[in-house]
Design a protein that fits this description.
The structure holds two protein chains of two kinds. Chain A is 64% helix and 6% strand. Chain A is mainly α. Among the domains of chain A are: 36 residues; 185 residues, MetI-like fold. In chain A, the strands form three sheets. A three-stranded antiparallel β-sheet of chain A has the order 1-2-7. Chain A has a two-stranded antiparallel ribbon with strand order 3-4. In chain B, 51% of the residues are buried. Chain B has two domains: 210 residues, 3-Layer(aba) Sandwich (D-Maltodextrin-Binding Protein, domain 2), CATH 3.40.190; 96 residues, D-Maltodextrin-Binding Protein, domain 2. A five-stranded mixed β-sheet of chain B has the order 10-9-11-8-12. Classes of the chains: A mainly alpha, B alpha/beta.
C-alpha cells in the first residue's frame, strides 16, 4: 500500500561531487586523505633519500649483534655477549614489570583517595584533596627524581652496615634498606615447594567458590551462611598444613652483607622503587579524581533509596554506588593505565633499564641505528597501549549499562 | 606521542643534513659563526664560567678553528651535547664539529660516517674509589656497584674488563657527569668509572678530593679528538690542520705571546714561516686567510699552553702531560709537517 514512490534517480554527474551535499563530504575527505598520504610519502622519501645521500641505510641486522653492555636488572638470562635483540627484550620485560606494578598500586591509591575525598570527615577529605592537588600538579619526572634523590641521600649505603659497631642495621635481620635499594628475603622452593603454592592457590579459588555458594543459598533459601571466618580458615589452614606435612619445603634466603653489597634475597633496586612509587602516586591522584567524579555522577537519590531499604553505608557503597560508578570510572581509567605505561619511559632519569633505556638508549647509541631503534620503540609502545586498551574495553563492556 | 615528535625531528634533521653536507666551510663562513658541540659541563675540558663564557681544553680547539676561519675566537656558538645526543647533533648538521671527549673508534669512524680529525688527548678508562673502601686494584672490585655514563665506550670497556677478569659487578647507568658525581658521593655506587681525565676533573670538584683515589688500572685506549661529518673532506682538513697547527706551534716554540712578533716578518725558520703564512700559500690551499694559523694560535695559545692553562698540573684538575707530551719529549703528540 505504498503511496510514496521512490524519487526519480537522476543520472550521476561529476559536478555533483561539489554541489550535492550527499557527496560533498566524501569529496573533501578524499582530498584530505590524498594530501595526508602525499605528505607522509614526501617525508618518508625525504628520509630515505637523505639517508642514502649520507651513505646510511635502514637495516635491522644490528639486532643480532652482541650488545656488549651489561644490564643491572635482568628478569631473563642476559650477559654482555647476548644480542641487542635480547637486550631489548630485557628492557621490554622491565617496562612491563614497572607498568604492572604501578597500575595496580595507582589503582589502589586512587580508589582509596577518591572515596576518602568524599568522606564526611573534614580532616580526611581535606588531606586527600591536598594529596590530589599536590601530586597531579607537579610533573611526574620531578617526582621520580625527587623520590630517587631522597632515597639516595637519606638511606644508608651498604658500607654503613659493616663493622663491629655499624651505624645501620637490618630490620628484624631480614630487610635491609640501603640507598641502592631494598633487600628482602627470597623464598627458595625445594621439591615439594610448588605443591604448597598450588594448595594455596586452590584454597583461594575455594574461598571464592564458597562465597558464591553462600550467596546463592542466601538468594534461594534466605539462609545466611557465615563467610568471614570460614574464608580466613580456608586461606591459612590448608596451605600451612601441607607446608608442615611435606616437611617445610619452602625456606627463605636472607640477604647478607658480603663484599661490596648485600648478596642473596631479592633486591628491589632504588631506581625501580623510585619509578614505581612516583608513577603510582602521581597517576593515583588522577585516578582519585576519576573515582570521585564517578561516585558523584550517581544521583543522591540512589543512596537515599538504598538507605531507606535499610542497607548499611558500607553496603550502599559496595552494592549500589560503586557498580554504577564503575561505568563512569573505567573509560578514563584506561587512559590513566596508558599514561603509566608511556610515562615509564622516563625510567632512564633514574637509570632504570626499561626498553627506552636499552633499545632506545644504549643500543641506539652504540650502533647509531637511531631510526630503526625509534621505529621499534614506537611499534612496542603502540602494541602495548592497544593491548591495554583492548583488555580494558572488554572489562568496560562487562560493567557498562546493559540496555535491554 | 613523544616518539612521533622525535621521528618527525629526525626527518627534519635528515632534511637539514642534506643541505648541510654541501660545503660546510662555506656554510660556516656565510653564517659568520662556528657551531661547535661540547660537553654539558666537564671542568677543564668544556664548561661555562661564572659569566657564562665557555672555557676549557676542548673549547680551546673550537675557538682555534673559529679564529682560523674568521680571525675571531669568539665567533663560536657552543652547543652542549650529552653522550647520547652528540652524534645525532653532528650527523644532522646542527653542529659543524664536535669537540667533546669523544673516543675515536672504528665503528664511529666507519659505520656512523664520521671523520676524526686527530687526537687532542690520549686517555684511558680509569676507576675512582673512596680511599676508605680499601681497594688498591680494579681486580678487587668483584661484586661492586659501578656508576657509569650511559651511551659511551666506557660502558662497553667495563663489560669487557669485568668479563675477561671473570668478576661480577652491578652497573648503575647515569646520564650526565653531575648525576654520576651525586650518586658516587652519596655512596649509591662504590666506584665511578669514565675516562681518567674526566675522573681527575670530577674529583677536582669534590669537597675533599684527597679522600678519593684513582686506581692504577687503565683498562682501555681512549684517543679523544675532534670530529666532523664524513664526506666533506675540505672541512675536515680545516679542523685537522688547525689542531696540527696548535701542536706544531708548541713543537716550534710558537706561543700566544710571541706569535704576533714571529708572524710580523719572515723568520730564519722556514717551517715557522710556512705555518704563520709569511711564506708559501698554505692558508689559501685550505680556503682560509694566510694568517689562519697565527690567529688560531693567538686565540688560546699553542697545544701546550691550552693543556697547561686548562687541565695541566697547576690547575685543580692536575693532569700530567704523560702520553700527551710532544713526541720530542717521549709523548704521542705528533703533527705531520707543514710543507
Amino acid at each position: 500500500m505504498t503511496s510514496i514512490t521512490d524519487p526519480p534517480q537522476g543520472s550521476f554527474r561529476l559536478s555533483m561531487l561539489i554541489n550535492d551535499t550527499r557527496y560533498r563530504s566524501y569529496t573533501f575527505q578524499f582530498i584530505a586523505l590524498v594530501v595526508l598520504i602525499g605528505f607522509m610519502a614526501y617525508l618518508g622519501m625525504n628520509l630515505v633519500s637523505n639517508l642514502a645521500a649520507a651513505g646510511l641505510n635502514i637495516s635491522f641486522d644490528f639486532l643480532g649483534d652482541p650488545a656488549g653492555y651489561d644490564i643491572n636488572q635482568r628478569p631473563i638470562e642476559y650477559d654482555s655477549q647476548s644480542s641487542h635483540l635480547r637486550a631489548s627484550v630485557v628492557g621490554i620485560i622491565n617496562t612491563l614489570i614497572i607498568a604492572v606494578l604501578a597500575c595496580i598500586t595507582a589503582t589502589i591509591f586512587g580508589v582509596v583517595a577518591g572515596v576518602l575525598r568524599l568522606s564526611n570527615n573534614w580532616v580526611v577529605s581535606k588531606l586527600m584533596a591536598i594529596y590530589v592537588e599536590i601530586f597531579r600538579n607537579v610533573p611526574v619526572l620531578i617526582w621520580i627524581i625527587i623520590i630517587f634523590s631522597i632515597m639516595t641521600v637519606s638511606m644508608p649505603s651498604p658500607r654503613a652496615f659493616r663493622g663491629d659497631d655499624p651505624s645501620s642495621s637490618m630490620l628484624f635481620d631480614t630487610f635491609a634498606f640501603t640507598n641502592r635499594g631494598v633487600y628482602t628475603p627470597k623464598p627458595i622452593f625445594d621439591s615439594g615447594g610448588w605443591i604448597v603454592v598450588a594448595v594455596f592457590i586452590l584454597s583461594i579459588i575455594g574461598i571464592f567458590a564458597y562465597r558464591r555458594y553462600a550467596t546463592k543459598k542466601l538468594y534461594a533459601t534466605g539462609q545466611l551462611l557465615p563467610t568471614f571466618w570460614p574464608s580466613v580458615a580456608m586461606f591459612f589452614v590448608p596451605a600451612i598444613l601441607v607446608y608442615y606435612i611435606l616437611g617445610r619445603p619452602i625456606t627463605l634466603e636472607y640477604p647478607e652483607l658480603s663484599g661490596f653489597n648485600f648478596q642473596g634475597g631479592i633486591q628491589l633496586r632504588g631506581s625501580l622503587i623510585a619509578l614505581w612509587f612516583a608513577l603510582a602516586i602521581y597517576t593515583g591522584a588522577f585516578i582519585a579524581e576519576n573515582v570521585r567524579a564517578g561516585i558523584q555522577a550517581i544521583s543522591k537519590g540512589q543512596t537515599e533509596a538504598a538507605a531507606s531499604l535499610g542497607l548499611r553505608p558500607g553496603r550502599i557503597m559496595n552494592l549500589v554506588i560503586l557498580p554504577q560508578a564503575l561505568r563512569v570510572i573505567i573509560p578514563p581509567l584506561i587512559s590513566q593505565y596508558l599514561n603509566i605505561t608511556k610515562n615509564s619511559s622516563l625510567a632512564i632519569a633514574v637509570g632504570y633499564m626499561d626498553v627506552t633505556a636499552t633499545l632506545g638508549g644504549i643500543t641506539l647509541n652504540q650502533t647509531g641505528r637511531a631510526i630503526e631503534a625509534v621505529l621499534l620503540l614506537m611499534l612496542f609502545y603502540l602494541t602495548i597501549s592497544l593491548l591495554i586498551s583492548a583488555v580494558m574495553n572488554v572489562y568496560n563492556n562487562s560493567v557498562k549499562l546493559k540496555e535491554r | 606521542m613523544k616518539k612521533t615528535v622525535l621521528f618527525g625531528a629526525l626527518t627534519v634533521a635528515g632534511l637539514a643534513a642534506g643541505m648541510a653536507s654541501a660545503a660546510t666551510l662555506d656554510d660556516v663562513k656565510a653564517r659568520g659563526s662556528l657551531n661547535c658541540g661540547v660537553t654539558t659541563g666537564l671542568v677543564g675540558f668544556a664548561s661555562p664560567d661564572a659569566n657564562g663564557v665557555w672555557d676549557g681544553f676542548d673549547v680551546g680547539v673550537c675557538r682555534a678553528v673559529a679564529a682560523a676561519i674568521f680571525g675571531d675566537p669568539t665567533a663560536v656558538e657552543f652547543v652542549p651535547t650529552t653522550g647520547k645526543t652528540r652524534f645525532t647533533a653532528l650527523a644532522s648538521g646542527e653542529i659543524d664539529m664536535l669537540a667533546r671527549n669523544t673516543t675515536w673508534t672504528f665503528s664511529r669512524d666507519i659505520d656512523l660516517k664520521f671523520e676524526f680529525t686527530g687526537v687532542n688527548y690520549y686517555d684511558g678508562q680509569g676507576f675512582l674509589v673512596p680511599k676508605d673502601l680499601g681497594v688498591s686494584s680494579a681486580k678487587d672490585l668483584d661484586g661492586a656497584t659501578v656508576c657509569i655514563q650511559t651511551g659511551t665506550t666506557t660502558e662497553l670497556n667495563l663489560a669487557d674488563f669485568f668479563r675477561s677478569n671473570n668478576i661480577s659487578y652491578d652497573p648503575v647507568p647515569i646520564e650526565t657527569n653531575a648525576e654520576g658525581q651525586q650518586q658516587y658521593l652519596a655512596g649509591a655506587c662504590d666506584v665511578y668509572t669514565t675516562d681518567a681525565s674526566g675522573l681527575a676533573s670530577t674529583r677536582a670538584a669534590f669537597e675533599n678530593p684527597g679522600d678519593h683515589v684513582l686506581l692504577p688500572e687503565i683498562i682501555s685506549k681512549e684517543p679523544l679528538g675532534p670530529l666532523v661529518r664524513h664526506g666533506d673532506n675540505d672541512w675536515g682538513d680545516v679542523v685537522r690542520w688547525t689542531l696540527n697547527a696548535l701542536i706544531t706551534a708548541e713543537e716550534l716554540g710558537v706561543t700566544s705571546a710571541n706569535v704576533a712578533d714571529l708572524a710580523a716578518a719572515p723568520t730564519d725558520n722556514p717551517e715557522v714561516n710556512r705555518l704563520l703564512g709569511t711564506e708559501g700559500e698554505l692558508g689559501a690551499m685550505l680556503g682560509l686567510e694566510a694568517d689562519w694559523a697565527k690567529n688560531a694560535i693567538a686565540a688560546g695559545g699553542n697545544y701546550g699552553e691550552l693543556f697547561e692553562k686548562n687541565i695541566g698540573e697547576n690547575t685543580p684538575i692536575g693532569l700530567a702531560r704523560g702520553l700527551n707530551a710532544q713526541w720530542t719529549e717521549g709523548g704521542l703528540i705528533y703533527s705531520p709537517p707543514f710543507r
